[in-house]
Amino acid sequence: MTPTYYLVLSAALFSIGAVGVLVRKNAIVVFMCIELMLNAVNLSLVTFSRINGSLDGQIMAFFVMTVAAAEVVIGLAIIMSIFRTRRSASVDDANLLKY
Amino acid sequence: MSHVLFAAATVPTIKTPSIAYHAIAPILIVLGAALLGVLVEAAVPRRERFNAQIAVTVLGLIGALVAVGLLHNTSLTTPSPVGSSESFYGALSVDPAGLFLQGTVLALALMATLLISERSIEIGSPIVASAAVVVGSPDDKRLANSERVQTEIFPLLLFAVSGMLIFPIANNLLLMFIALEVLSLPLYLMAGLSRRRRLLSQEASLKYFLLGAFASAFFLYGLALLYGYANSVDLPAIFNAQRTSGKSDVLLYLGLGLVIVGLLFKASVAPFHSWTPDVYQGSPTPVAAFMASCTKVASFGALLRVLVIGFSGSTWDWRPIIWGVAIASMVIGAILGVTQTDIKRVLAYSSIAHAGFILVGLVAVTSDKGQSLASVMFYVLSYGFTTLAAFGLLMLVRDADGEATHLSQWSGLARKSPLVASVMTILLLSMAGIPLTSGFIGKFYVFRAAWHTAGPLVVIALLCSAVAAFYYLRIVVLMFFAEPPENAPTIAIPGWSASVALTTGVVVTVFLGLLPEPIVDLAVKAAHLRG
């Protein structure tokens, strides 16, 4: 099994995540799609690490996981504070700012 | 058991590379002050917290600024390799251009701190009393008129500043990504901490967060593809790999494109600008000032380094991209700015247009000897001071709901307060690029640097600045020659801290317009990036 398949899988996951961010309405789901994109990147980092024969990519995947964890903390805090006021996590409801 | 310990002892020790701590002193000072701020939050009683936090923040920023001043001639990369390893590159490159941008970020952050700590315009400050309290609840109404403030904003600001200090000197894409997150995550929170119009503020925070995280995922995918191409994320290694790597160029170009998308998003360049007006409008005004000035300086610094150190070998491939986004940014900023009715959104579109002008200076950055680099550095500095003072001034014009940001409320302002109206006029003229202000000098150098390489682009830029000048001048005309409306706003008298910040911004704007030589010389001398 060539490692290239994993790159294709990673690109597919990244695209699914990106499309999800654009079409989904619930802020939590949008946020999960962003996490999917980050994890797709992790998959390609590890695959490239295998292809290139160096360990750097695997270390980088750890950095990405740490940053993603910090992002979850911030993101959920923001979504929570909005939800408590509006009783809705839909990004379509957050529409006071326009034009 | 002893056998196992003995076996472990025979493993050769890993030699750690040496770190030039003095060269990263500014970053360490700011991070130290931020941690101290967290401790203050935990240990100091609420009554004294506000003043303690201001002291920690201001002293930390001044200390870091002094450290940058002492380092001014430094040019090194750190950490340095162990032994003679040819493929080792320091992750941080402390060089004159990086230090110039760091100094700019620190000076602007200091002014933003002074704006945030302004307490005589509004009870408490422009910052919410308690961000966790539900909007509109009885507690929220009670706290809105109390002296209490969410003082965590000061450590958050310091963390963001530390990210902004690393961002323009990161020589390694992974470090650049982490700096990007360290500067962004606190900003997402700070955007949601407005005292008035909290729903708008929270919405700005959510939009900034979702779009910002989306953009950093693109940056990260670009990083992964470049790692696949070059087997390293050090910018000099990526540069070398373009001559030696046998991998597909698809990885290189796709990777470069995605990394640039991530950086352009932070710099609010069209077509990645859609968050800018909403976030600037919803955020507390001093935080918007901080974002508009400091983030722009830091992200253009990072963009310069990526293009010059990592991709000067493929200038012909990225130059058309920069052309395209520069034109898009200038046109969108200029034309959509005309249709706005809220003054904060006008400033946001102005910021998008200015990002386009800065990109004009960037097209020739690899082909002339530092001239473009110096012009971009001067431009971000002069624009930073002007826009910070302009946002600061918005804090003074108020009605019962807080700041009066609708353009109609600004008509006839000169009758009420000639001083505020004239100061705003100076700042708007500077943004329009009228001679005798810093904006003119900045545009002049940027356009001159780009003229030989990108003549048509400069012509488009001139046309766009003419269109943009229309909406700046429209505000000036409105303030001086229109009748005041029924619901005319009042002009608040700023306390010492906002006064200092506003005066500095205006003085720098005028000074750089009349006598730009000292700063231009400094930028020309510092126009050197080390790989």
Strand content of chain A: under 5%
Largest sheet of chain A: none
Q: Give the topology string of chain A: H per helix, E per strand.
A: HHH
Radius of gyration of chain B: 23 Å
Q: How many domain units of chain B?
A: 1
DSSP summary, beta strand count of chain A: 0
Count every beta strand of chain B, where a strand is a DSSP E run of 2 or more residues: 5
Low-confidence stretches of chain B: none
What percent of residues of chain B are in strands? under 5%
Could you write a compact summary of the structure shown?
The complex is a heterodimer of chains A (99) and B (531). Chain A contains three helices and no strands. Chain A is mainly alpha-helical.
Walkthrough of the structure:
The complex is a heterodimer of chains A (99) and B (531). Chain A has 99 residues and is mostly helical. Chain A has helices at residues 4-23, 27-52, 56-86. In chain A, helix 1 (4-23) packs antiparallel against helix 2 and helix 2 (27-52) packs antiparallel against helix 3 (56-86). With 531 residues, chain B is mostly helical. Chain B has one domain. Chain B is built from 21 helices and five strands. In chain B, helix 7 (173-191) runs antiparallel to helix 8. Chain B starts with a helix and ends in a 5-residue tail after the last helix. The model of chain B has no long low-confidence stretch (mean pLDDT 91). The interface between A and B is large, with 45 and 43 residues.
Spell out the key features of this protein.
A: 99 residues, mainly alpha, 3 helices, 0% strand, B: three-stranded antiparallel beta sheet, two-stranded antiparallel ribbon, globular
List the helices and strands and how they pair.
The complex is a heterodimer of chains A (99) and B (531).
Chain A: H1 4-23, H2 27-52, H3 56-86
Helix pairs in contact in A: 1-2, 2-3
Chain B: H1 2-9, H2 25-43, H3 46-70, E1 76-78, E2 92-94, H4 96-116, H5 138-144, H6 153-166, H7 173-191, H8 198-230, H9 235-244, H10 249-266, H11 275-282, H12 285-310, H13 315-338, H14 343-362, H15 371-394, E3 397-399, E4 402-403, H16 413-416, H17 418-432, H18 438-451, H19 455-481, E5 490-491, H20 496-514, H21 517-526
